[in-house]
Structures are given as C-alpha cells and as structure tokens.
Amino acid sequence: MSAQKPSVPKGTRDYSPGVMARRNYIFRTITDTFESFGYQPIETPAMENLSTLLGKYGEEGDRLLFRILNSGNFPGDADREDWLNADPARLALQICDRGLRYDLTVPFARYVVQHRNDISFPFKRYQIQPVWRADRPQKGRYREFYQCDADVIGSDSLLNERELIEITIGIFAALGIKCSIKINNRKLLSGIASQIGLKERLGDLTTSIDKLDKIGREKVMEELREKGIPGEEIQRLFPILSVEGGNQDKLEQLASILNADTEGTQGITEMNRLLKLCEGLGSPGQIQFDIKLARGLNYYTGTIIEVLSDDLEIGSICGGGRYDDLTGVFGMPGVSGVGVSFGADRIYDVMSRLDLFPGETLSSTRLLFVNFGEEREGYILNMLSRLRKEGIASELYPDAAKLRKQLSYANNKNIPFVALIGEEEMKKGMITLKNMLSGKQEEVSLEEMISEIRL
Amino acid sequence: MSAQKPSVPKGTRDYSPGVMARRNYIFRTITDTFESFGYQPIETPAMENLSTLLGKYGEEGDRLLFRILNSGNFPGDADREDWLNADPARLALQICDRGLRYDLTVPFARYVVQHRNDISFPFKRYQIQPVWRADRPQKGRYREFYQCDADVIGSDSLLNERELIEITIGIFAALGIKCSIKINNRKLLSGIASQIGLKERLGDLTTSIDKLDKIGREKVMEELREKGIPGEEIQRLFPILSVEGGNQDKLEQLASILNADTEGTQGITEMNRLLKLCEGLGSPGQIQFDIKLARGLNYYTGTIIEVLSDDLEIGSICGGGRYDDLTGVFGMPGVSGVGVSFGADRIYDVMSRLDLFPGETLSSTRLLFVNFGEEREGYILNMLSRLRKEGIASELYPDAAKLRKQLSYANNKNIPFVALIGEEEMKKGMITLKNMLSGKQEEVSLEEMISEIRL
Question: What ipTM was predicted for this assembly?
C-alpha cells in the first residue's frame, strides 16, 4: 500500500498533551464544583437510535445529525426508486438506524425515562462527553466538541435555578473568567406575545428576538416583517423589550404591562422569587435580568440562562434553562427539569486568549535519569521504584543516546530535574542533580534528591 | 408525536452514577500509574477518515467498522448500478468517507505521523477513550467499549517492555486483581515456523496457535490440516510448543532448537535480556514466558504480552506488544513502538465478580439539609456555602416535601448525614444532625457538625 498523507476529518481535532492538560484543568474545575453540590456523573453511548434523536432539534438539527450506516447488507429492502431518484433524506432513513448524539440533553431525557425505576427523584446528574454536529466547520466551531451539562430533573422549585446560577458563578470564578449571567423567563416572552396579540407566533418571535444582540434592532424588525408579522405589532413589541433600569425596575415595568396575562403574571412571580433567591450571589450587577434574552432551543418553558464573558466577545460560554416536558416524548409526561451546559471549547478559547491558565497545568515527569548504558540500569530502576512510591513521577531515558539528545528530551517535555549517575557517583552512592530551569548542578544523596524535587 | 419506548442501540450501555464511580476508580488507578512513569495523555477524534482505518485490522476488521454516512446529498455520483446490484461493500465506500475508531493504536500511529514535527521522541503517551466495533453483541462483548492504552514510540530498547510490564503489575496490584503476565516474542514464533519449513505460513500458524488455550490441541491440529499444512510439519510443531520447565529452562531448550535461524536467535537474545530485566518484578512466577502465546493482531513483530486473571477465567484483561512499522503505512517508516492496552470493561467485570471494589467509590453528597419551607432557606443556603468552602459536598432538598420522602432521597443516594433545622434549632443557632447509618441524632453547632461529617 502506498503511504497515505494522514489527517483527521474536517472539523475534528487531536488533543496533544499540552492541550489535554489545560482541558483537564477545565473539566476538573467543573466536575469538582458539580460534585460539591451533589450532582452525580452519568455517561450515555455515543450513538443513539435515530428515533431518539430525530425531531428533537428542529429541521436543521435533523439535517446536522451524523448518521451511522447499518452494518452488513445495509441496502436490504431499501427502495430502489429512492436511490435512482437520489432522495438523500428518504434514503438515509432506510439505511441508517443510528446516529451520533447531537447534545447531552435529549440522551439524558431518554436515560431518565429508561431508568425511571432506578432513579431517586429529584435527580441531579452531570455529564461531560463529546457531541457531534455536521455543521460547516469554521473558526471556533467544530464537528466534534465537548459539552459539560448539569441538570436537576423531577423538581420545579426555583431553588434549582438558584443553585445552577451559583454553580455557574463558582466555576467561572474558579477559572478566573469575568462574566455576566443573563436570565429571563420564557413565560414573560409568552406574556409579551399575548399582549401584542401574537401568542401563536411565539416561536418566530423568540428566534428573532434571540438575534437582537447579534444583528441589531433594524434587522430583527425586517426579519419579523418578512415572517409576515404586521408592522403595528412590531411597533408594540420593541418598547416592551426596551424597558430600562435595574433588575427590579425592569421587572416592575413589565409587571404593569403584563398584568392581564396569566402566563406573563406567572413569569413575573417566578422572576421576582428567583431574583430574591439570588440576592448576594456573585458580584454586584453580575446577574442581569434581560427581557431580550430568548435562546434558540424550543424545549425551554421557564427560566432561561446565558453567560457571556465580560472581556471577550465570543458568544455564550454557558447556557441553559427550564424545560417542562422533555421526557414526555419518551412516554413520561409532566416531569420538569432545569439544566445548564458549559461549552468546554469556548471556555478554553477564552482562557487561552486572556492567558488565564495557571502556569503548571501540565502534570509531567519531575525527574529524568540519564541513561549511560546497561551496567547502571538495575541501580537506577530500583531508585525509580522508590521515587514513584514517594509519588514522584520519574523516568529513565530508554536508550544510551548522546547526553545532548537526552537533555533535549527533558527540555521538550518540561521535565524540571535531570539525574546523572556516572561511575564516580555510583561508587559514592551519590547523584548529580541538574535543575533544568536554573542550570545549577549539585551532588546529592537519594534522600536529599527526593526532598529537593518533591512538588 | 406518539410516545416512544426509549432504548439504547444494541451492544451499547448507559453508565449510571454507581457504575461511573467504580469505572472512574479504575480509570484513576490506571491514569495515576501511567503518569508516574512519565506517560502523557492525548485524545483523538471519535471519527477517522476511512482511508486511515481500512486495511489495518484484516478483512474482519474492515467489516466491523462503523461507517458514517456522508452529509448532505450523500448518494452524489455513487454508482447506480452498484445500488441496483446491492453490493454493500462497494456502495459503502461511495457513500461513507469516515468511520468510528476501532482501536486506539491505529489512530495513535496516524497521530504520530501527523504531528511528527511537534513530538519529542521517544514519545510516551497514554489514551483512554471508547472504541466501536460492529461485532455481534454477547455477554461481556459490547459495540462501544473503553480501551486504556500506553505506548512508547521511537525507541527499540527492551527497557520499554520492562517498564510496561512493571506498569501492568503495578496497576493490577493497586486494583487488587491477582494475575499472570504471559510474555513471548513473535521472532521466536517466526523462528519456529522457519525451523519446520513453514516460514511463509507464519500468519496462519499464529492465528491457530493463539487458540490453543481456548479450543485445545486436537482442534488446533485439525484447523492447521484444514489450512492445508502437511501432517508432518504439524507433528514437528507441537513438541516445540510443549517445552516445559521454568522460564529459563524453556528458553534454553528453544535456543538449541532455533540456533540455526537468525530471527529465532534474535528472539532468544531479546527474551533472555527481557527476563533478566524483569528479575525482581512482581511475585515469584507471575511473569511467565509462554511460547504458545501468539496474539491475533498482525502488526506485532517482537515481544508480545497478555495478562490473565488468576481467579476468573474471562480471557485477557490486558494485552500488547512491539510493532516495528505501524507508522510506515502513513509515510514514516522504521519507527518502532511498543504498547499495552487495558480492557476497562473486563477489568470492571473481574472486580465486580470478585468483589474487589473498595466500599467508598461513590463520591456523593456528605450532607443533606431537610427542606422545611421558604422561611429557613436563606439561613441554610449560607451554611451550604460555608460547607462547600470546607470541601464538604452538601445539598438542600429543593422542595418542602414530606420528611419521609426527603429521608428516603438521602438513603437512596447514600448520603451519610442529614441536617434538620426546625424553629427551635434556628432560634438556638443549632442543628439536629442525623447519622443515616446508625440512626443516631444529636444537636450540634455548625462547627461541631463540620468536624463530625468531614471525611
């Protein structure tokens, strides 16, 4: 076989040790916080039945699912006509029964229904796994990326919302990312839609409102007109979205606008209680009630949350909300849940660009023994075993290569100490220890070396 | 949409919190050991280009690859005739460019070649990720399962083999699994094949020899006859495979049989040196030179390793070996590597069935505050924040549900302590702390509680 030029599929990446160390730092921070609030981990398979995934993410989502070709004689009874007419959508359904997961929320809903008899509700779970989307790859958007989700299912208490906000604040504080937590409630948006006589267009309204920050008021008005929403209603919409002031001020203005609508009033009550519960959380002004926050996903029904970096315009680095009936489609109606999802890749980008990673994320070897040949190997192997028992990651260069090459290996791997044992040292039972940062060399005993190089 | 009965695809599983805790215990033990020997983590994408995967695992491997349907108009220019003739193999190649990874070794070889300019050799990497195989699911065999690999690439020193054996012994000792490490060398098998005049049938020989322990001598002889190997040669093979005695004895007998063959002699030298290097490792007799060990994978060229549980017949729980030219197919010839792969799922099964997991793998909440209603929430939320600062995972039940329900939640989640704060306690600034194991209740201050429940 001729040599292939090796590459990864478009939109996917390898993670090398340096990047892995930084990613693991993010994952560890998130995991530790989740666990300190009593969330427990689960994992679900990379592939799900397409019946689980299809229809949950809208038309675009269906299109962006990666589908797995059935094994064996996959064409089976697939319709020859469909093939000849080259209808990809119909064909794909006949030759693929499974797809790669598109997010962690729908598999979680499936999990909850499937394991309902083993779960003690309210169920607080977290899940950190990759998801796959056949999106057009572009800067900062990948076809394989990690989501870190925490959800509480089976309780409609707003204490859960407060807890997820506290978790979010805690994680970003630990990572050193300054951020704003924007919150809103879908019931308020629904109330506004009713108020201006567009209750049945709520979906269209939220999709457009969601773009306000990105494309601006004029473009959104244009989009709404294109969707066939009358100019008069649009004129009534924007003053409501433009309420100004502190969280409480805005809420009071909205309360007087929405007081005739049941759902809107319910939204006001919930937001009032949530703001009260969140008093004292985060820095002053960090939690911002924003009536223009809409979020795209259709399954949200109550509180919605979005987190933006204060120092870098990169889109949301965390988002979530309450969904009242996600498990209904799998045969378990009336179970309310609320969750947040952290985007590990964007968080990584923010931390890289703002230089927020601590210096020592790369957990690497502390000490390299130079290899001077077979006759000293046994002696060194015994020392290595002792060092590792002391919790000191250490290694012996496997070949008796040139000293220069061995030192350059230590350098490239950021190994801070190198031990040299020549004939002289071996006779005396001593070690020449070289500090790779300072270049300093000294002769020490094994015990002295251990206390010197220990972290 | 009507409610669906939710399920996962055949051969895949959900991991619930209890199982996750035990799996993470295994992964942590493996990771800590790998890192203490200077191995660094990498990760590669779940999907690889099919050109990377095809032809690397033999015909069966190609058949067992999960293929991903191309996005969009996937039929494109695919041959209509192939479709009408329903030739799955030809069709699949036209409508799928990518597949899910089948193991971690081939993606690693691809990684090494792709990143050769950024890697400092010898490169010691570990990788813990799922792999996918469209195998027929059966007890203990899954379509999605985790491999934990450590490899050294770019050094042909036998110190690497010794190190991987030491790592293997260390990991299984830490997990409490008693095991035997079987080692052999493909060069010895090659020498034997030459010796009996079957050099060109080495592949067939190793595949059959590999089955000796499973199906026995008679069946293997039958299989060899069916493969067209003459009875005379078969008669000469088995006495060689039946050498008896200690490691050194067996090796000496083989040395006298193979002394005319260059590769065989090379194998003897390598095995001699490896056994010498391994002196003192593990318990007496734990490392066993076994000339019948063959291992299926074609890419091994030197030492081969396989680990078996002493207490449970479940097949190999770890295996590996040296491969001299895995990167050659990707355009980087002459780079030798050696690695081992731990099968997390079989290890899990062994530990479960032998009851080897420590009692406290489930890192769960230490303390649950009972929720008696809104008026005490603020008070409790402040305490929670203090407890978490002390590193104590704790939570407040989110609803003011019946006490019985809240206690049963604590029970199901294995939460060891429950705090009750009634009106009385709040006035006094005290807490009623209930030990869920002993059932004992006592009134304590916050500070007393912290020192009581801390792990």
Answer: 0.92
